[in-house]
Amino acid sequence: FIINAIIKNHKITEVFSMSVKITALSENISDNPELLPDFGLSLYIEINDKTILLDTGSTGKCLNNAKKLGFDLSKLDAVVLSHGHFDHTDGLVNLIENGIKTVPVYFNRYMFCERYWRRTDDGDYYFPTMSGLSPSYLQRNKITFKGLCGDVYKLFADEDAYILSNIERVCDFEEICPDDYIKSGGGFIVDDYKDECILVIDLGSSLAVLTGCGHHGVINICRYASKVFGKPVSAFIGGTHLAAFGSERIEKTVSELKKLDLKILAAGHCTGPEAMSAFKALPFFVPLHTGTKINL
Length: 296
What we know:
Helices cover 19% and strands 29% of the residues. It is an alpha/beta fold and 296 residues long.
């Protein structure tokens, strides 16, 4: 099967062993005037007859855009929330308020911690970034949900789609972002992103990895997925959180990405303009914006 990653005139092709379709329903930027941007990310994933929504953006524009693209989100098989920041979870409210209540929702058990971004642009303060969702809200709306505890969770019995948690940090330059915090014991501690999970699709001879923000770092994530499944990562799609870091981290990331077996790197959202520009040196890079379509 062929992967076609097309944005404007950019196209990459590579042979894989199964068919997967991915559409960015919403991202910070939209190059298509018919589709609405939404801060955050939301990816619509089709694996044969199964459909998954990875994240929902901050306001749920993914629902509006899905209708314009001909996707019926009421028929989803699963919603996966990658972590507990509002710009990836709060769009679910729009889906629920529009009657989409029968789709099971999956997330890591640590998703509902109080999360903050430490800012110094006007004094020193903690800006709330936690999810606006709560277990009680989901229960009141009779939403089936599962907080995952284990390292690997298989979504479907008949498709090779997995949620990975507890990502190992082995890359020496991919340190934790020092600006993200959680509230603990009446004070604030640096967030270690225990809540973060990624979606992995086993393509047969290789893996496709999909992230919301990729807080643990693209190299850590790829290495962890490869370790778990014993296969190389050929496709990385989602956020990389490089907007929070400087040139040195970006340069090292680009250098390591060249050593991997990637056939496509589709990055956006929290990747940031500097990293997006640096990624242009990679022949397998395409920007990930609202409306981007990737066929594996």
